[in-house]
Task: structure prediction
Amino acid sequence: MTDRVRSEQDVLDAIERRRRRPHVKLLEQHITLAHGAGGKSTHALVETLLLRELRNPELERMGDSALVQLGNGSAPRVAFTTDSFVVSPLFFPGGDIGDLAVNGTVNDLAMSGARPRFLTLGLIIEEGFPIADLERVVRSIAAAARAADVTVVAGDTKVVERGKADGLYASTAGLGVVEHGLELDPSGIRPGDRVLVSGSIGDHGMAIMVARGGLDLEVDLESDTAPLHEIAAALVAAAGDGLRCMRDPTRGGLATVLNELAVAADAAIVIDEDAVPVRPEVNGACEILGIDPLYVANEGRLAAVVAPEAADDALAALREHPLGRQAAVVGEVRAEPPAMVLLNTAFGGSRVVDMLAGDPLPRIC
Amino acid sequence: MRFVDEYRSGDVARSLAERIAALAEPGRRYKFMEVCGGHTHAIYKHGIEDLLPPEVELVHGPGCPVCVIPMGRQDDALAIAERSEVIFTTFGDMMRVPSTRGSLLDAKARGADVRMVYSPLDALKIARDNPDREVVFFAIGFETTAPSTALTLLRARAEGTTNFSMFANHVTIIPAIRAILGSPDLRLDGFIGPGHVSTVIGLRPYRFIARDFGRPVVVSGFEPLDVLQGVYMILRQLADGRCEVENQYTRVVRDEGNPRAMQAIAQTMELRTTFEWRGLGFISQSALKLRPEFADWDAEVRYEVPGVRVADPKACQCGEVLKGVIKPWECKVFGTACTPERPIGTCMVSSEGACAAYYNYGRLSRRRESAATT
Result:
């Protein structure tokens, strides 16, 4: 080996050391939109401010829900979580802010392996917002709650002056019961494990981008928003001990979730581009905008890591559910290089799939 | 997506890769520059280097529109964007480029009305929808994007939209290539010519590269098979002892380019005497400004901007990266002080920038590197 090769290796090693170093201080003076994109800037904000001030073992797990024990050790474990919804437009093909607010929290509970039971609902409404639209949203919340078998047991409404909110913001908290003894945690991930997704990726994010208008794209795209409690329960039943963990790849997409898992497991996740299901319409819209579907949000998909011997049963269980017809094994876990996600391209090459700094920004030409 | 997938076939790629390997003389080292950032992005995104024999090295060129904007111009953009009457519109890629006072994203967080658009026509629409505001479009890019700026200007004039102006930063590709060919510290064996730019300017402007500098040029498309075939065609020329300008991208690029687009540019814009390129310094007659008859739509005329030349941060080696003199990882701050989250140089911002492409996609290329140099 020549000096040059060693030195490239040195640079790459230095980058990896730096990448895996915890954030200690937020370098920005102001919140930018990048802090809300779910990528590296969001992680930096959470680690340097929220985790620093609120630190406790359960929060440190940074799971989709907290798992807490109420009462003595014989009481069932409870999953507890919260989520906020600021989607624009409020109504989009395939859903609206109402079912999104229910499904988002239901899915966070379901990914922890819990059966979702109760929700709370907070609405922040802008002065002048049409009652008819609000009615439509609340009806959709009711329908989504019925579909997910959860009850909205408490709520709050606030109205802010015109211009102080973008029509309507919603926030839900959720409580679920863990009815199995499995420890679902990325620390259980081992080399050789398989990575599964329950369906095509990027549908929700691209449907929203197209629905925002201004793109002049004529594509038939619907959000995938859906409650995942049933399909998650089916996966738990089918894979049993072989199930390491589940995640719903919302903001930041599949790439972000896999990076979080790779870091938590200190392992490499290698996925095959050919194996990742992407609708042609999503691929086409992404291609035109210069966006990678791996980073586009989903609201009704799950990613799961399962032991190799459980992979076939897990895949069959996913495909048996209406939401999982297109489920696929998309990759596997390897020991090296730790904390990285790699992609074998359909073209025959390989590359890194990193977490993005902020929102994916469209390219110029 | 059939129209794209057929240019991404792994099977075709493998057979093309075999033909490339057969053409490359063992032990000889070939350095080909892909001029355009779109190619750089495609090369890393699809892992094209994994399919090349160790003899062939791809060197990344200056054709990334975001990368070549000097910091002083970014300062000017911020100064305009922060005016209270202005809605500042820009392509998304420019939002994170640092100025001396942060990026446009930071300016937006401080209260500036900065909006991302996909085309200058979207910016013009915002102007029509907001008659009480002044809408400025941050016009950047090579000959690829200049025609859309030109047509938008013509439309603004025709419809009499006066609350709209352009902050023009269009650059032209040929002077940059000439500057690179004149650089003594770089030995290149051929060029993968920019596909999109060539749809506008055609093939003729590249002839001097073959004629005066004896280097083959193959204008190529942006799908991975296009790039691979471009490499094959350059090697074929070298093996045959030919030196020509060839067109791989015939499904899009015509030899004569697009005369109507060129005419629209000429009608609305003229060459600046000189323009500063990030890292490359001042290059004469390398950029476009609005013609005097479009002064009413010229943000540089309408708004006072600092117009100060700002030296690049000392540690930043974007210039060497843009000229292909060093690989991204050879820059002293690459990946440590300069990352996509906190970029120092522009090459780390745009997804077409060599540093961002290498950082985001290519941190595994050591396998090939070591194969090539041992």
In short: Chain A touches chain B through 50 residues (CB under 8 Å). Residues 182 and 241 of chain A are 7 Å apart (CA to CA). The first helix of chain A runs from residue 3 to 20. Chain A has three domains: 1-60, 63-178, 186-352.
